[in-house]
Specification:
alpha/beta; Rossmann fold; 10 helices; 43% helix; 10% strand
């Protein structure tokens, strides 16, 4: 790894389009190699598991649709050195994806407040992208399917047919996603940061233009932007669930 001169932190919530954005940024070769370097929780050494999206929920039917939680092995080590090594391109740009839960877990590991000072201390010249999805219901449906099937990317499927509609689960996730998205906005305001805003709907409509705009804002372009490497996971079943939830789930 060469010297890191610039950092790009993609701040997001699950199923917001951040995986597509990060794949395209990675494909340019000039915007770091953004991955979820901080997804493994200190408490288990594992990424967030299905039932951990429903902490505090005691609906036995809902929880019965999800895989049991693996306790794993605690890991309170500092993940940043490895992330910097793996996430930096030859031009000195480091990039990573950072979920709201990742930020707090990272801060707890390091015994620090989850503020911009921590990130600026460890990531040189940080720039921020906030990826947000306006349609939280569709986002929640996508997340509910993913936590049941473990299909986070197209092709990762373990058992796609295992997904079952559950209005209560979708309502819970809508509230959770909205809360975390609002928390990112409040965090940017509290830390006097004006992030680059990427909306899922615009990214899905014209991914090359959105990525070109990000490269321009961080001074890492111009560069050739690849075609989207991921196929959309939404399908007729997702569309039916969205319409059903619009009728059943309170706004």
């Amino acid at each position: 790894m060469g010297k890191v001169t610039k950092s790009l932190l993609v701040c997001a919530t699950p199923r917001s389009g951040s995986t597509l954005l990060c794949a395209l940024l990675d494909g340019t070769g000039v915007a770091g190699r953004p991955q979820e370097f901080f997804e493994r929780l200190a408490s288990s050494g594992l990424p967030r598991q299905p039932r951990e999206y429903f902490d505090g929920v005691d609906d036995a039917e809902l929880l019965g649709l999800l895989a049991p939680t693996d306790p794993g092995e605690p890991d309170d080590g500092d993940p940043i050195p490895r992330a910097l090594d793996e996430g930096t391109t030859d031009n000195g740009v480091f990039a990573a994806k950072l979920m709201w839960t990742h930020l707090h877990d990272l801060a707890d590991r390091l015994g620090r407040a989850p503020d911009a000072a921590l990130l600026a201390e460890r990531f040189p010249d940080p720039r921020y992208v906030h990826v947000s999805r306006e349609d939280k219901l569709a986002q929640a449906v996508s997340l509910w399917r993913a936590v049941q099937t473990r299909e986070w990317r197209a092709g990762d499927v373990i058992n796609r047919d295992a997904a079952v509609y559950h209005g209560g689960a979708i309502a819970h996730l809508i509230a959770q996603l909205a809360e975390q998205d609002d928390a990112w906005r409040a965090w940017f305001d509290a830390n006097a940061i004006e992030p680059i805003t990427v909306r899922y709907e615009e990214l899905a409509d014209d991914p090359q233009a959105v990525v070109a705009g990000v490269l321009d804002r961080i001074g890492a372009g111009p560069a050739e932007i690849p075609e989207p490497p991921l196929r959309r996971q939404g399908d007729d079943r997702s569309a039916r669930w969205v319409e059903r939830a619009r009728a059943e789930v309170p706004a």
